[in-house]
## 1
Amino acid sequence: MNKKATENYDVVVAGGGSAGVAAAIGAARMGARTLLLERYGFLGGAATSSLVLTYCGFYTGGSIPQMRTVGGVGWELLLRLQAMGFDTAPVRSKSGNRIVMIDLEGLKVALDRMVLAEHIALNFHTRLVAAHRDGDRISAVTVADHEGLREISAGAFVDASGEASLCAYAGVPMSQPGGPGARLQPASFPMRVDGVPPGVPFDRARMTELVAQYNASADMPITRADGGVVMRLPISNEIWWMTVDLDTDGVSGADLARAETRAREQAWRLMDVLRRHPGFENAHLSLTGPQLGIRESRRPFSEGDATGDDAREGRRCPDGIARASWPMEVHVAPGVQRFVDIGGGGWFDIAHASLVARGLRNLRLAGRVVGADAEAYGSLRVMGTAFATGHAAGISAALQASSGGSAPGAVRQALAAQDGLV
């Protein structure tokens, strides 16, 4: 199969979720010729592909006084959504933490506008298929779209793929290798439900009874005994329901097919349970996402992984490039999760070293690919924080491409100039 002639950029970003968008914008604002690769036909990552319609990590959580911990590109997005008529004020979730509710289609348009305004080269329906190393750097990647394969070189790269695909293809060692047999946090399958009139309350006690009745004879039991998360969406006033949890390795096509077909089957059956709730008699499953909401698959080592101790103590560091404020949320099994509050003032610094892939000087990590142990990962993996780490990773990659290095101080200075919080 013939390849196109090699393309060249300063920075190539793999993945167009929260982290990838922020990375691409951050790099472009540094003057880097930037390419953003996305496998779907829209940006947004888990928010738009998995219907995870809540931004976590923009604010301190639990009983800590409310403080915003994300600036830069992430905050600009919320301001843009406000200007489009959406309410982005934080609300309390079922866990007691502060979240921002998202409108699906409004978010897609807002992200398109932000990326296109920066003259970033944007490729949709494009998948990363290989990485090519030259010693301690990536020299190029191979990607595939409907036209075929092509090779792209760059001075620096950002892995914002969620599944650490670029890291895996480039041979970065993994702290969590993923794949068959891995002990991973389970995935979720959020759904949108219409047909429930405005003002109908959700009775948690009644739903718990209905779940218990269903589970007594179900071959696909509901793992969240109280019915899970049930919230009203902005604008549409539909119900957002997250109660389907199940295990998957998150990377192999066969296991994803097993998990996603099972998730759809379970979601469809659960509507019969929901319709027994008073006021929900005409409830209808209106939408599920193109894919499961994957919490964890592969995690690469960085030059300095964030740790649970960093989070518990609310540690600050002079090389901090982002603030993580979401509690350490670890799902130990389908339907079973625990939250551990962040210490100090309710947030901890993510060091620049957590963004540098171990053994590859021109590869940066962003979003849930950032180097972290299992506990710290439970905090920094969320989308609000992903905007912050992505923004820093893009700036760091641009500096690496232009000068062959990215000192943490220079990254912090550039972040501050772009209204990031450091």
## 2
Amino acid sequence: MKRFIIAALVVLAAGMIMASTAAKDLYVPAASRALGAFGTDWRSDVRAYNPNTATANVAITYLPMAAFAGQAATINVTIAPLHTAVWENIMEENFGLQPNTAGALHFVSNLDIYVESRIWTPGAEGTFGQRVPGIPATQAVAAGESVDILYVDNLSTADGFRTNFGLVDAGGVGVAYALSAYDQNGTVLGTYNGTVAANQWDQFNALGKLGVAGDTQYARLMLTVTSGKAIPYASQADNASGDAMYIDGTKIKSSGGGGGDNCGTGMLYGYAMQFNNSDWEGYISFPFLWAIEDFNLWAWQDPTPENPNNDDDFGAVYITPTNYVMWLGFSFVAESPDEYVPLSDGGPFDFSIKFTYTNSSGKQVLEATYHMVGIFQCPNYVGGDMDALVKALDATYKDYAGKWYWHFGAGVK
């Protein structure tokens, strides 16, 4: 039985939390101070953490959409060592911008920092909104690269969703790009060629811009950058409530504009995302690396065909029982049901793997069984759904009862 090894950063949280990466150069891809439909009143709150023992000097630049180009501005702030800086309603309180304005924020620091943001509005009962992470500039999609964005729906029904697509120039010289939409079976639904000026941002209805009429569900977007660098994303909103969820567009990346030439062999990089369900109100992001060889699939940290069982597995689990955040080192071993998971072009796959997570003290704290069902498509793309049954092995942690559900996808790295 072949060892099934997967590299992952698993985020378990009581609210809308996704793993962030510290960097000196980061983008919050969407920020707003605007009045919207149905009496909404949107604003952005930002928090930045300095994990260093020295003061971080940070320049925050507002990169607006073309209609608000004259509002571009930079503010300079400091973050004390090991402190978290908080800017509530940053567009109005710190940049002095009244409704309406929309764009992105660019953070440049002398030290690595973490940045998180939330766009939100007061609602009839409480508030609703979406968390927007700080994306390192190194994750930008460069000329000649493509990314796939999953979970793209446009439904007119009251219980359906609509999806916006956005991107920000991350190179300072402007971006030219091609955007295509595909249905669940890989058929092209529409295409669009666009540009974003230097140090600006754009957002639009994802399928409407591509001329896709009528209700559409389970679509996929593929962005190919032809010049410059961009950080793309999608935002899917509930038609009934207006509540939205952020979808990172930098993860499922392909070199050379869409997947490579050797179908059935390659290295895949992707992610899985979970959204709210009846068992648990929260958000999980699960990046991973996979490998395929001669239409056989496995997942790995950094193996080679000669050494597929590389044991250099490590990472972190971010867990918030009763709103208490803890970092855990983990290690794990998982077994695949067969020596390989077989693939065929356009064909399905179905397998389960089991993980036991061990903290930095060597104690087993979590156990999870992941079940993945999906489709492999040439040129080298996998997508599908995953559920997990997660059990706490230590009374310190909340027993996460019930199953969690993800949608996942991966493209050639």
## 3
Amino acid sequence: MAKRVVVGLSGGVDSSVAAYLLKKQGYDVIGIFMKNWHDDSVTISDDCPWLDDANDAMIVAEKLGIPFQTIDFSKQYKKQIVDYMFEEYKQGRTPNPDVLCNREIKFSVFLDTALKLKADFVATGHYCRKGVIEKEEEKIYQLLAGKDDNKDQSYFLCQLSQGQLAKSLFPIGELTKPEVREIAKAQELITAEKRDSQGLCFIGKVRLPDFLQQQLKPKTGKVIEIPTSFTGFNSEPSQITHPLNHEELKLISAPYLYKKEDGIIKGEHSGAHYFTVGQRKGLAIGGTPLPMFVLDTDVKENIIYTGQGENHPGLLRSGLFVQNDEVHWVRPDLKLVARETARYKARIRYRQPLDCATLYQEEDGLYIIFDVPQKAIAKGQFVAWYDKDELVGSGVIG
């Protein structure tokens, strides 16, 4: 009897080809479109194409001859993703809803739904791969980068557990995007030439601050420029020599702290909670020799601290910290215990090149010290660490 797979058909080419490949491989395939949003109270733009996407997904299912249905997950999505976004920005943090959506919706609520349909697996159109190894007579599942370096999406799945991976399939992980489109064309799938979706659908084609204003109201505050001569940057050592003691780890990983008197007022903004570290657009401040970037936000005092140029020392830090309860090991068998260290490659955002780093597990949490200073480390971002092409673990930056 063929194993049953429920595919998340998004109405895009990647999930369409994933469904086709699974059927070709002999699986009993069911297609489900996840309706994650329809709350007009926090939707500004009418350009949210979920209806078109659902229709395209249905047409693909008909073409492939597989059962199809639409399931409404909007209540769970609002509670676990949208409300999370608002709360994080309110606190001056930089959330990544895509990572949370995969952990909380696609590989949790959706997976539970699939299991009720007596499915053996769920499948998505993510560009990543799954490996299996045996260790002490136990199966361990690996989350591996996709073969297409330009499309690798393993970072977005960095919070998956062994239980979730065990029930997941990634049919296009061995393919490149052009190969996926060629398969879709050959099978005359309606999604073959469809452009990739960008960002969260419910926001539509609007600026994030405009969306956030639905619940986070504007509040005028000062924009303060920090000069490159600020003495607080001296806390970042020019040369890091391992091993580091606990005090050195705390020093290197701590964000720079600014006060109003450390710089000069350059203008006003409409709310510190609308901005994030490293942001360039939206400041509406001109007349400077170099572009202005956000170095930090103080949501309590409603101040934005900025600096000129993408190489401003306030944008660069070599270390970051993850609280113990925010550390997640995709490979729990590799989990570090207190006072253990390990060498991995890591990234703090999607599509960022991996850089070498040393992980220090201390009593109070995990410290990650990069060989090369990282640009715009922000609280709330996810850091993920890799062993070659395997994503080993991740955590929320504190």
